[in-house]
Specification:
There is one protein chain. This protein has twelve helices and four strands; from the N terminus they run βαβααβαβαααααααα. The chain is α/β, with parallel strands linked by helices. The protein folds into two domains: 109 residues, Rossmann fold (3-Layer(aba) Sandwich), CATH 3.40.50; 82 residues, no CATH class. Strands 2-1-3-4 form a four-stranded parallel sheet, sandwiched between helices. α1 links the parallel β1 and β2. The longest helix is centred in the N-terminal third of the chain and has 14 residues.
Length: 200
C-alpha cells in the first residue's frame, strides 16, 4: 500500500496536515507520527531523515517565537542532510494562522464578520490568542468550546482542539487559505511537487 508519514505537534496540526495531503496528493494512506509538542519532533529529526530515504515524510511544526523559518530549520537539521522525500514545513507563526487565512469559511464558522479576521495572519505574534479573542465575539455555542471560562488559567476552552479539528476536516479549504498565507502556499506547493514520489 502506498502511504506517507505525517509528523506533527498535536491533533490540530495533524488534522491540517491530513487535509493538505488530501487536497494536494489525493486519497492516500497516512501514518501519523505524533506526541504532543515540538520537542519530540526535534529529537527525532535524524530518524525522520532515515525514514524519508525510503518513504515520504511530511513534518509540520509551528514557528512560535523563533525569529524566522530558515533559522529554525538550520537549528533543527544541523548536520543532518535533508533527503528529497523529507518535506519539512513551518506554519508562521502557528497552525491557527493557517485556519484564519481561510477568512470566508472561518468567519462563517464562528458566525462573525470577515472584518474581524486578520488579512495577513502571519504577522500575528500570537495567532492562538487572536483566534480565541475573535471567538469571544461569536454568538454560537462554539464560543464556550473555544474560549476559556472566567477565572480559568487555560488559554483556550476545553473543546478547543475538538471543535477546530472538526472545522478543518469538514470546512477548511487550504488552497483558498493559501492566498492569505505565504508559508501555507509554499507548503501546499511542496506537497504537490513531492506527489510524484508517491504516485509514480
Amino acid at each position: 500500500m502506498t502511504f506517507l508519514y505525517l509528523a506533527t505537534e498535536d491533533a490540530l496540526s495533524e488534522a491540517v496536515g491530513k487535509k493538505m495531503i488530501e487536497a494536494e496528493i489525493g486519497n492516500i494512506a497516512v501514518q501519523p507520527l505524533r506526541r504532543n509538542g515540538s520537542g519530540y519532533l526535534k529529537s527525532k529529526m535524524r530518524d525522520f531523515a532515515e525514514i524519508s530515504a525510503r518513504n515520504v515524510v511530511f513534518l509540520l511544526t509551528d514557528l512560535d517565537n523563533v525569529n524566522c523559518a530558515p533559522q529554525m530549520k538550520k537549528d533543527w537539521f544541523q548536520a543532518i542532510v535533508q533527503p528529497d522525500k523529507f518535506l519539512f514545513r513551518i506554519a508562521v507563526r502557528e497552525t491557527e494562522s493557517w485556519l484564519m487565512a481561510d477568512r470566508a469559511h472561518f468567519s462563517d464558522f464562528l458566525g462573525v464578520t470577515q472584518n474581524l479576521l486578520p488579512r495577513d495572519p502571519e504577522t500575528l505574534a500570537d495567532p492562538k490568542a487572536a483566534l480565541v479573542n475573535i471567538a469571544r465575539r461569536s454568538k454560537r455555542e462554539i464560543r464556550s468550546d473555544l474560549v476559556p471560562g472566567r477565572g480559568v488559567r487555560a488559554k483556550q476552552g476545553i473543546g478547543y482542539n475538538e471543535v477546530l479539528c472538526d472545522f478543518v476536516e469538514k470546512i477548511w479549504d487550504c488552497r483558498r487559505a493559501s492566498h492569505n498565507s505565504d508559508s501555507l502556499r509554499r507548503a501546499c506547493q511542496r506537497l504537490a511537487e513531492i506527489a510524484h514520489h508517491i504516485t509514480n
